[in-house]
Amino acid sequence: MSDIPPAGRWSGTRATGPGKLLGFVAASVLAGVLVAGLLVPGAAVAGAALSGSNALFASLPAELAVEPPSQSTKVLASDGQIIATFYAENRSSVPLDEMSPYLKDAIVAIEDSRFFEHGGVDGQGILRALARNLTTGARQGASTLTQQYVTNVINESLASSGRESEIVLNGQKEIGDKLREMKLAIALEKKFSKEQILEGYLNIVFFNRDAYGAEAAARYYFNTTAKELTLPQAALLAGLVNSPSFYDPAVNPDKSIARRNQVLGNMLAQGKIQQAEYDAAVATGPDLQLTPSRQGCAGAQMAPYFCNYVARLVLNDPAYGSNVSERERRLYRGGLTINTTLDSRLQNAAQQQVDATAGPNLGKWGASLITVQPGTGKILAMAQNTVYLPQDGKFDTQLNFNVDAKDAAGNDLNGAGGDCVNVIG
User: Fold this and answer.
1) How many CB atoms lie within 10 A of CB 317?
2) For residue 84, which of 385, 397, 291, 337 has the smallest C-alpha distance?
3) Straight-line distance from the first to the last Cα atom of the chain, in angstroms, rounded to the nearest whole number
4) Three-state DSSP class for 336?
5) Residue pLDDT, tens place only, 30-67
6) Which CATH number does 18-59+90-282 carry?
7) Is 290 exposed, middle or buried (0-12, 13-18, 19+ CB in 10 A)?
8) What angle separates helix 213-222 from helix 194-204, to the nearest 10 degrees?
């Protein structure tokens, strides 16, 4: 297996041929000229080439709409207990002060050591990468954290609006794409503080394993929070973002540890940690506590068939979007909190009674139990004697025995009988 890691989340094939290398060199030269013109307006580089480049640069968009990234939707029982979580991207955004200082220092140390010095585009970094590319034939990028954030925001916006086909992968970017990224990064730095940009980046970036953002990554890899990450844990996560699959500690522990130690070395060199901290951290193993997150009704903490019914109601309700596709995006990306009428205490009792009376081992017999509040019609419990894991066993099914096949408008309810209405409180 090659020791050259592929690029990160929104990545295509890395360019290694001479044509691609020359294209990258040309882009780097042009970027260097533009940066020189932006940072030193009266510099001697001003001339026909710079004038033409600046004209192209000026014609590019200068405003980036930064919307909150996709958030998970939570379905709650009446007492606030989580029934289920829906997401297209497993993410829980947290403010910067709810993240470990080690993580903030680690990501800057490995991804953009001059983050707090440049204005969105690092002229020194571009020239350094260009020199290395020309002398070694390798391809070293020079994208700042701000530029990476711009790319993630654009791609997240396209994915959230169902336009994934328009995403330009890293290995496929042309000169115009890079210039657009640079201009938007410069504009972003004028609009937001460094801390705001760093917070946005750490909440949007992909850490592999369906973990988007620092909080989800901390919970998945170490069963902790972003705030409680230790130094070696934070360094390992920071090392992931360059190539999440390649540096996945569960698959490539040796490569992951080597990358983590590189992060720690950078932190030491930049004065973010002391020698004793470095020595202690590099002596540790990955110490993973992998904690996968199951989403949707198959991963429900309780009442999976009730969960399915709630999801069907959302997907059938025009209040959540003008069509099913819009409603699905709202459910899986909109960060909704859906409060329901389910009584968790009654639900547990109902499920226990069904299991004791007509467990799934009865074979052909299907049984269900529903509790409705008199006078209001609110559903308080919904139990069934099958396992909600479709196609995973003889007595497993998604079919809900408690509800009709369709509602009054003809929308699919995935049911086999019953007549339920009021569940979202």
Assistant:
1) 13
2) 337
3) 54
4) coil
5) 555 455 444 444 344 444 444 544 554 455 556 677 77
6) 1.10.3810.10
7) exposed
8) 50
Both structure tokens of 301: 């903490």
CA distances from 383 to 77, 297, 358, 368, 406 (A): 14, 14, 11, 6, 19
Q: Is the pLDDT of residue 140 over 60?
A: no
With CA atoms as reference, report the closest residue to 336 among 360, 358, 318, 320.
320
Distance from C-alpha of 220 to C-alpha of 382, rounded to nearest angstrom? 31
Token pair recorded at residue 7: 């690029």
- Written as one string, the DSSP assignment of 249-291 is TTT-HHHHHHHHHHHHHHHHHTTSS-HHHHHHHHTS-------
Q: What are phi and psi for residue 211, nearest 5 degrees?
A: -110, 115
Grouping H, G, I as helix, E, B as strand and the rest as coil, residue 130 is helix
Q: How confident is the model over 272-309, as pLDDT tens digits?
A: 999 999 999 999 999 999 999 888 998 998 999 999 99
For 248, other C-beta atoms within 10 Å of its C-beta total 17
Q: Return the ∠ at Cα 331 (arms to 349 and 69), rounded to 5°.
A: 125
Q: Say if CB 346 and CB 381 are below 8 A apart.
A: yes
Distance in angstroms (rounded) separating the CA atoms of residues 317 and 311: 10
What does the chain come to in residues?
A: 425
Each domain of the chain, given as residue ranges in start order, spans: 18-59+90-282, 70-89+296-425
Among residues 246, 295, 299, 230, the alpha carbon closest in space to that of 222 is found at: 230
Query: What is the C-alpha to C-alpha distance for residues 257 and 235, in angstroms, rounded to an integer?
Result: 9
Token code pair at residue 5: 């890691």
Stated as kind and residue range, the H or E segment containing 369 is strand 368-372
> Taking Cα atoms as reference points, which of 54, 14, 60 lies closest to residue 37?
54
* Under 8 Å between Cβ of 126 and 32: yes
Q: What's the rounded Cα separation, in Å, for the pair 281 and 217?
A: 19
CB 235 within 8 A of CB 281: yes
pLDDT of the residue at 359: 72
Structure tokens at 266: 């950078």
Rounded CA separation 91/421 (Å): 31
For residue 340, give the DSSP letter.
Answer: B
Are the beta carbons of 78 and 425 closer than 8 angstroms?
yes
How far, in Å, are 100, 260, 350 from residue 238 at the CA level?
12, 8, 46
Tell me the C-alpha distance between 17 and 281, whole Å: 39
